[in-house]
Write a structure and sequence with these properties.
six-stranded parallel β-sheet, two-stranded antiparallel ribbon, Rossmann fold, alpha/beta
Length: about 210
Amino acid sequence: MGEVKFYYGVMGAGKSTLLAQISHNMHSRGLEVATLKPGIDTKGDDHIISRMGTGHKADMIVSPEANVRETVRAHMGKRGVKLSTLVVDEAQFLTPDQADELVEGAVYDDYDVFAGGLRTNVYKELFPGSKRLFEVAHHCIELTLPNPCRCGEQAVSMVAGLMVSSISTQMAQSILSTGQALTWNTMFSAMNVSTNMSRRHVYCSRH
């Protein structure tokens, strides 16, 4: 029986970089690996990319309506091999049902799932996909790669609304809270006007 591991952290914590390394390590051991990302994440188009510039093409892009387990089954059926490891980037953009389907695939189809994503949006609310993964994943691991706030303490959340931007707060909420991004350029603009902050400054920003 496989397991689901959910790696979460703030922007720049190294989630996509870690997933790329996991994929490489499994490939180098001769294991069958498949990669997947939500279609709502248009960063890099059909590629999984990190902030360091490394990346590779995703094997599967899933819409919010897609059944993840069946999508993986169909993909591996075409390849004609048994899956060993599924790597999922930007998992916060999965629906709760798709998070459940990751676990079902791991448990019943016997492969390991390594998923990475943000925990909360700029309003400190859990993304629906992340929330469900916290509830059902076998392991949830926070990535705490040094990523300091302006005060020097470790960043724990991203905050928006403190910087001037060409996009509105309402648009930032739509993009980052619900994940309904139209283009990666627009979404990147929203993230670019947000910043990682320590818990001290997250709460200072509310006053």
